[in-house]
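Sample entry (298 residues):
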Amino acid sequence: MAYGTPSTPADVEAYYARIRHGRAPTPELLADLVRRYDAIGGTSPLAERTAAQVDGIRRALEKKRPGEFDVRFGSKYEPPMLEETAATFVDDGFSNVIGLVLAPHESSMSTVQYMSRAKEALGREIAFFEIGAWWQSPGFLELIAARVIEALAQIPTERLATTQVLFSAHSLPMKILENGDNYPEQLRDSAEQAAKIADIANWDIAWQSAGRTADPWIGPDILEVLRTKHDAGITDIVSCPIGFVADHLEVLFDIDLEAQGVAKEIGLNLVRTRSLNDDATFMDILADVVLSAESSAA
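Predicted structure, serialized as tokens:
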């Protein structure tokens, strides 16, 4: 399962309304979202990237356990909706379904909602096995560390001492913390472990892509952090959006355009780590995550 993205510019308004639980966006909000999509080519490549990931997981599982898994995709906000996909498992007579969200960290307001909706759609006749946070799964942080090291190689050696790695994830409303949600701790822990694997001492975390709502969101925001780092004498930033596993609006616009624009404005060099997308090693890691869940449920 994944968040989803509008397939064409004409689908943006309906997609935005679904995100807002059926409430149509104001003309200003819609125009702002359309502007951001236009800036990266009109639509996000997320649908294509997710399809490639689903196919990659399917092929990896087939290689490891031939003929044993049927892999299908459902989206939170864009067809095929996850309820529609769940219904196909019911119609086809499956008795066991494993749920995997293409997001490494778990939160009550994100991945847990996917699982709740999927479980309800599958009904009581199907055993549903939920995969929670999988950022600690073998190989994932090593892959992130390798991406960070690759990005650091683009920084002139004489500036490495004033270079910092900035790990980020999607901000969520602060109200999730009232019920003990440990999403922020997961980001810091995953960043700390990835930095340790990469043998990097100078790193920090930031939050990005906060929603346009009146509620306060978890911070500090990456745009604010970039200015703070520059003021503190940092010359170069390696941006590692560890909370995202594919190229999409929050990476291609929020980092590559918006954050990069702030960095250029203040004289800070910013380099981003390559997105994982359907990297073969990443697909193997996720296949193993599924196999581990299946083994634990047996």
